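$ run holo --ligand "4'-deoxy-4'-aminopyridoxal-5'-phosphate" --emit tokens
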Amino acid sequence: MYISKSSRILSSSRIKFMNLVKENILKIKPYQPGKPIEEVQRELGLKKIIKLASNENPLGPCPKAVRAIKDNLNSLNRYPDGNCFYLKRKVAKSLKINSNNIIFGNGSDEIIDIIIKTFLKKDELVITSRVTFLEYKIVTLVNAGKIIEVPLRNFSYDLDAIRKKITNKTKLIFIANPNNPTGRYVNKKILEDFLKNIPRNVIVVLDEAYLEFVDVKDFPNGLNYLNKYNVIVMRTFSKAYGLSGLRLGYAIARPDLVKNMEKARQPFNINYLAQIAGSACFNDKVFLNKTKKIILEGKIFLYKNFKKIGIKYIPSVANFILINIKEDGLIFFEKMLKYGIIVRDMKQYGLNNYIRVTIGTNRENKKFIEVLKKMLKR
Ligand code: PMP
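-- output --
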């Protein structure tokens, strides 16, 4: 009897596939991506959607990056430069460091993966906060590592508690500074006291994805610690440069660390257009200042209105704010979606009555407050 190719595939699916999968992968809760905006719009019959869910730049992508991409589309037949020569040179010059201090990643997400692959040996541990960027945990587990998650103190990383968890098995400590999703930060004094007391076999990763939005004087610049301690600084083009969709992040560290991280990445991990765009827009002060201005203005507007409405918020130094809506955040998120606004619920962090809202344009912030008032009947 003839068995078509498709039915052969169907019958093989009866085999117990689960036995094929590594145990550390089976344990991971899959990442739940949201539906595409267009699909939500279609399903709910909405004319317009305001997305305040992923801490993106409300002004759009940096125009210099867009222009450079348009001008270089005809070179896509060539492989990209596997070493990001020009991009490294541009960033190094601007930050007054050397090219061998920098490694690029397909978003800083990939940098996390490269760090863990390069440094975390069998039976060694990662420490981070319980309420922070989830990729530290996911990537550790994917790489069969173990992770200790330390509770927050007043919505901030508790570095004293983290230090107490360090043993001779600890290899990496991830600190998001500013922290996502709380928007709080570790100040210079606290960070320096912490670094002084870290054993030499431990690497501290300072994830500065939101650095460009920070508006406080006592914020520590991770680059000042590269030579004194085992520190790796992570940064990204996804937020302030408005290039989330392009995927470009980087790490800065001592050459001996970078040299080994380079071995753990794919040979052409940074696509051609990302390299071109990154070189064109890095440190574009006009765009960065415009972005910071709109975020700071938006923050003042939102704080003022939260106070008026009587909503508790966590003061943030980033481009998003965690707010306590005193009811189930997931239900609230779904209701808000019906008004055409996407925010982020915090259930996965155990912050059931909170939502995180990204600061948008003035018009988007106004609409958000209008809907918030309506929903809370204020
Ligand atoms: N670190 C933090 C703290 C983040 O919030 C994010 C993105 N949400 C990232 C890193 C990853 O950014 P990307 O991969 O887009 O560079």
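-- notes --
The longest helix spans residues 285-309.
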